[in-house]
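Researcher: Final request for today, and then I'll write up notes for the group meeting. The sequence and the SMILES for magnesium ion follow.
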Amino acid sequence: MARILHIEDLRVHFPINIGTVRAVEGANLTIEEGEVMGLVGESGCGKSTLGLSILRLLRPPGRIVEGKILYHGEDIVRMGAKEILALRGGRIAMIFQDPLTSLNPLFSIKEHFIETLRTHEKRIETKEALARAERMLSSLGISPERLHEYPHQMSGGMRQRIMIGLGLILNPDLLIADEPTTALDVIVEAQFLDLLDDLRKRFNLSIMLITHNLGNVAQLADRISVMYCGTIVEVGPAQTIFDEPLHPYTQGLLASIPNIKLDEPELKLMRGSLPDLVSPPSGCVFHPRCPRAMDVCSEEWPKTAAVNGHQVNCWLYR
Amino acid sequence: MREELVTVRNLKKHFPLEKGFFDRLLVREHRFVKAVDNVSFSIMKGEVLGLVGESGSGKTTTGRLILGLLPATGGEVLYRGRSVISYSKKDMEELRERMQIIFQDPYASLSPRMSIGKAIGHPLAIHHLADAKTSKEICLSIMEKVGLSPAPFLYRKYPHQLSGGQRQRVVIARALVTNPDFVIADEPIAMADVSVRAMILELMMKLKREFDLTYLFITHDLATCKYICDRIAIMYLGKIVEIGPLKEVFSRPVHPYTETLLDAVPVPDPRFRRTHPMPKGEIPSAFNPPPGCNFHPRCYIAETRCRNLEPGLEKVGEDHYVSCMVRGSWGSRD
Amino acid sequence: MKNLVRYIVTRTLLTIPMVLILLSIVFVVLRVMPGDPVSSMLGGHAPERVIEQKKEELGLNRPLAVQYVDYLWQVARLDLGDSMVFQQGVTDAIIEKMPATIELTFFAMIITLVVGVFLGAYAADHRREFRDSMIRLYGIVIYCIPVYWLGLMLQLIFGIWLDIFPIAGRTGSRILSSTFEQSGFYVIDTLRAGNYAAFGDVMHHLVLPAFTLGLTLSGIFVRLTRANMLDVLKADYIVAAEARGITHTKIVYRHALKNAMIPILTMMGLQVALLMAGAILTETTFSWPGMGRLLLERIYLRDYPTIQGVIIVYALFVAMVSLVVDIIYAMVDPRIRY
Amino acid sequence: AAKDTIVYGTTEKITDMDPASAYDFHTWELFYNVYQGLLSYPAGETYLVPGLAESYAISPDGKEYIFTLRKGLKFTDGTPFDADVVKWSIERVMALKGDPAWLVTDFVEKVEKVDKYKVKFILKNPVAYFPSLVASPPYYPVNPKVYPKDKIVRDPSELKGKKLVGLGPYRAATFKRDQEVVLEVNPGFYGEKPKNDKIMIRYFADATTMRLALEKGEIDFAFKTLNPSDIKDLEQSGKYQTIKGQGPYIRYLCFLCDSPPFNNKVLRQAVTAAIDRPALLDKVFLGQNAPLYSMVPRGMWSHTDGFKTVYGDGNIEKARQLLSSQGFSETKKFNVQLWYTPTHYGDTEVDLAAVLKEQLEKTGMMTVDVKSAEWATYKDNWKNKVMPTYMLGWYPDYIDPDNYTAAFAGTEGSRGMGIYFSDPLWDKKFAEGQTETDMKKRTALYEEIQQMWTDEIPTAPVFQGSLYIFAQKNVRGILLSPTLQFNYGPINKEK
Amino acid sequence: MNYSPARALARIFAPAARMGKKYGVEWWILCAGACIIAAILFMALFPGTLAPFNPHQQDTGPQLASPGGAHLMGTDNLKRDVWSRIVYGSRTILGVSVLAALLSSLVGITLGLLSGYSGGILDRILSLIMDSVYVFPGLILAIAFAAMFGPGIINITLAVAVIYIPTYFRLVRGQTLAIKQELYVEAARAIGASGTTILWKYIFPNVIATTVVVFTLNVADAIMIEAALTYLGLGLPPSIVDWGMDLAMGKKYLPSGQWWLITFPGMMISLLALGFTMLGEGLAEILNPRLLER
Ligand SMILES: Nc1ncnc2c1ncn2[C@@H]1O[C@H](COP(=O)(O)OP(=O)(O)OP(=O)(O)O)[C@@H](O)[C@H]1O
Ligand SMILES: Nc1ncnc2c1ncn2[C@@H]1O[C@H](COP(=O)(O)OP(=O)(O)OP(=O)(O)O)[C@@H](O)[C@H]1O
Ligand SMILES: [Mg+2]
Ligand SMILES: [Mg+2]
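Model: Predicted protein-magnesium ion complex:
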């Protein structure tokens, strides 16, 4: 399998009045062709920032301080503006958390599609663009007549499908989905995940699924990266991450989520909460919350270790 | 049998649709959103009843109706067997001490310009339960109890200076300061982070024991019900479609909607695969609900009669009721 | 489409109470306020007898309700009565002056919009850069410069010191307005008459007043546009559009600006009101023969029917503008058509 | 040969285009040039010459004037000009009771047609200066077929035919109120043809604009009313002809003479003594205009400088003495309410009031409250006796000392101006002055009245307006007359 | 330890600098605005210390002298000192505009709160009236009122105050309606708070914060309206020194090159308005609830 995306030592900072928010601090991540990579972590740990960095969509004052983002071996961080534009939508598609606000309310669905197509294929005719949009909609299970409607006339699930349609219309090979189902109801969420699974096969997609819902990744992801405070603390195949989590953070995270199918009487608690990213703890960022913290943890950042097919950053696995 | 603390009988809430000037001139009949339509259930002293449903199914409205924050269109609420409608103004005040609510969004339910101490102590001031000094003492002790420590330090803070988890604790403290015996928790953990959720749930259970509370636990997440509820009621478009003991409903769901809902809950286990296909479409708008059984357009076992006839709740097991014609006593169960 | 028509009809009907209230306020202000027209006309110390007589003359001693109905009926017929000072109908006087005011405000509005919206959008696009700070500073400072003072300073600089623009009037003294005047809108009239020299002269005279009025209001638009643009640029659909590879310019000036213009459009009605107010001061400063000067002159003369008439016309104008703005709003924003 | 278009700039305004109603000098100026009186003044002169009347005769008792009209004149629509027209016009003025109607009704009992070309005015009393009255616009004959009988006309558009045309040297080609009036030569005029083709009058909303237009060469001359600062600049620049004339226009301070405090003439004297005219002119008008020491303006027969000799200027000593004689002192100050009107006399009034206030307060025994009211209110104020002392100005209705004296101190006239001065002796003197025909006796009489004025002071003269016309260097034929009659005919441009 | 003035100064300004770090440019805008206002306030409170002459005193020097020498801003035609008139004029404009804004905010806020909270027919009628007045050009209303009342300091204050009532009304009513829907008001009802308690303890404190910003911006606006009225010759008798009136007086000297007569009064009007606007802008950003969350 070829690496479609390889992120190396990425650091993204937000310099603000009171200091610098180190939203992503030395993250490493690889996505292979055709796989679904789940990126999980608590709110505010830098998942979205990481996702946005891939397409260089960070808002000021956010900027990539250091690191490489290799897409098919090409470094996105060093790409020119033109190449980036071609990349966005054309090669890598991205969908966001809130489908309610991800479509321009003043433009009809049709206009969204035409504009997207036109941007990447300058000479495409309106008729052909429409035809392609219609085909895309039907493959997403939406009747093509709705192309003429405006976003506010659609339901949340439909809007999210349209977002995906807009992303896939140019046949990209990587889809970054940033919490695509958070705003949806359980049943619609399940429908959407099924759709994603289906599309992945049909379009031969690689997907980076960002979420804090471990249930979602469990159903879809091939591999899972666990993020904490701007870094990836553990990466591994989905099954083993759930079965034998190595990092104490992963363990705590898994223990604190409810599983309807299991018969355990109580949830386990994870102490404390996410630290301030302006002045993160020294050494291993997780040590203040870690039940198995040692002296060394507060002093030095652990190197990545390969254990059981996982890559884990923890002094326990030196 | 234990005492019925709160009973709801045929509760209805119809919101008139917002209408334009023109409509008011020309159209005479009113259109309504039937947010809560003929809902009945009761909550025993000391138990936790879960009220579950998708967004817009009328959960919050039910909660508000019980507290009398909204006037009901029909039906009644009984507290310890006595109809709230018959309450005098004074009784009503008394009732406000006994029943409390915790809202979904802790930040929004605290006034940004009122300090934490003031906010928690305010119910005492309103009900004249304590003077300024004792009020502060009570507040500090309850703050400690909900885990807001150091309490004297946090007492003077404002909501925006607190973390999400702390805010939710403040809201809980405020709800408990008058020593109520019934608390409605309206999605208290929906806004919270994974790790915080577990903490809040645990706190709630601890307080329940300590204060001898009864909860109506409103949520859209069936998975969390498992840890806290004794019974659950499933709502769909303003109606209760199934109600029963938690274990029974989870292991033997009768209504196809309950079934789907249980099936749709994401399971944090890669091995698990869903058995049924998800129903198509989304929850219909409440002002234009489908005729007959509300769920029939999305139901995989719907029959023609479902389109025309409205089912009612019927008993299908010990304390287990369901509103489905196909699966109920009229149909055969497999 | 049917919804749109329905909306327009509804909105139009809703204008009626607003106009009625404005008319009533004018009525009340001029009749019930402490200085009622007659006694302030007579200087406050007039003997009762004199006042009574004058009131009799003006029909002001009838019951207020009767006067009110009479007044509304008058306005409905677009008959604003006769001047108390001159032998002239108020309606005629206003019709004579209105084109000048409209011409001035129209061009000022264009300047305001172009300068304000462009600078605002540009600043938002370059948020927190030096350019942004400068444009914001411009917005604040220009807002605080009273229109009359700006006018005087522009007159001093461009009219007196540099001597490149005329500082008063609608035409130069050598141009005979009677050779082309038809509608009173000189820009149109000169063009229709094919009198290009006169057209040039008219435009030349428009420069300073239109810029004075336009620039002072542009500050508000810079701020409004910038703030709205910033909000819109934060919106998810902007990031989403960016993620689809749409070019930056297109995003800023097509997606964002269009959305940002919606709240601005709703403010436009109010801005027109400000413009009318500013026009009074501009007209005074530039000796522009419009309604504002008419109003002031008649105020000095205590010509109540004319004062009332002019204010009514302003009121009708404002009501109409806000109606039009709302209708445009409904046409632009698909969400509004319920 | 092509003659000139003369562009004339002014800040004046036209009121009603109707001799029965107009009562201001600018509108009258238009009438002088568009219409024609029975008698008229030659350009720039003060003596009367025949106009529409070839001659007139006075009855021995001085109460009947018979005018013989010029024959064969026709209005443009063909209506012949005859005695009926004159009678109709005068009676119309009398019936409509417009502002200037008193110039007719106060003097004329009735008008009679003697024959087709002879018309007789029967007066109420003999009036020495009746011919100069007849030369004023209310006596101007208008076309009965054009003017409505019972309605005052504001715009020419209300006339039948909608054209402003009479028997005078010009007719209006365009009439745009407050913007421009273009007069072209009236081909039907019987008299001497004007030296120019067209007079284009541009109306300026303010003096500054007019000055700039003159400097830009957009207007050929500017007349009435430039700001003092503009006059100073233009005069000093030397680029323009300055035509300066002593105007018949006077400014004075009025006292409300029948109510306290100014029913006490000593207080009137005290205030008058404190006024320092040259200083006032220097500050407010940058030295323009001339101090006035009598109500009869300088340049008019019988003028004396009474106030100068009796009070002088800024006579603080005298003022203090007079005030203390009435019980006022440094500690018990006399409080004066001084009124002015901010727009009617131009925007110098505020300054005028401020300077007067300062001069009066310099005595150390007066405090002055300056108050203002817009013209309409001002006029009502004086009717209602609200203003103890206030500034007024006067343009004569006819050129005669009577118009500068009786109008203010006669029982009748002073009431109309809020002065409320009344003295039978004075009224007797005024009546004598009006009927007396012997010039010597009249002169002596008015000199005596002026002397009495310095003692009683119904009004205190302050200054006499100078008239300025600034013209481009090539303009000829602008003749300023003390009568304020301004004929456009002689104006032309040097080639 | 030695006493050092520099250190003392640094100590005084340290909190300001810290705020500057926290809030950035907005804080400095606020400071600049406050400084301008403070300077002009000083003028108004202690004119004697700044002005060499009585503002009404004539013959203080040559006529129409240009700025410089004994006359910082030159003299006018009555030989009055322009700078002294500027100093004393600050009292009028500051007094009238602040007072007017106070008056209108008092009335507007009260009505807005009541109307927004009680709703119903009263609310409908009031808002219809207020909306109509709101869209109407304020200056024209002020002109009408000023003409109606006649000149006088109280009258002009009223005339200016009237036109801002709808601004506050609409703002407060809108906020009240919005806050009424807020969860924390519902929470207050749930704990049994009465209508008045909710209005005063929950709605009012949250409404008032926004009105502070509007108030300062409103004063800036009132300054320009006051000056506009007096510039047009309405509102004040000449015995009062006022910038707008001086501006109107200086206007006729424009072509003669006596630029100081219009430049300085106009500049002062702008400066004062600028002071309040900057204060308001700064406050708006600093009191911004979005920033509070951080
Ligand atoms: N524009 C910004 N300015 C300053 N800090 C920012 C900005 N955007 C994000 N951050 C900070 O960066 C950190 C990471 O944010 P990010 O949105 O990537 O988290 P996330 O994991 O996606 O969280 P969530 O699950 O809530 O979406 C947070 O601490 C956030 O406060
Ligand atoms: N004040 C109101 N006026 C009109 N309709 C209302 C009002 N409150 C609620 N509704 C409608 O009533 C229905 C039920 O609303 P409710 O808030 O009770 O749902 P919910 O189950 O709590 O949903 P969620 O999970 O999103 O909180 C919805 O369709 C909603 O639009
Ligand atoms: Mg995120
Ligand atoms: Mg809810």
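Model: Chain C touches chain D at residues 40-47, 50, 85-88, 96, 159, 166-169, 172-174, 176-178, 181, 287, 289, 293, 299-303 (CB under 8 Å). Residues 97-300 of chain C form a domain with the MetI-like fold fold (CATH 1.10.3720.10).
Researcher: Thanks, that's everything.
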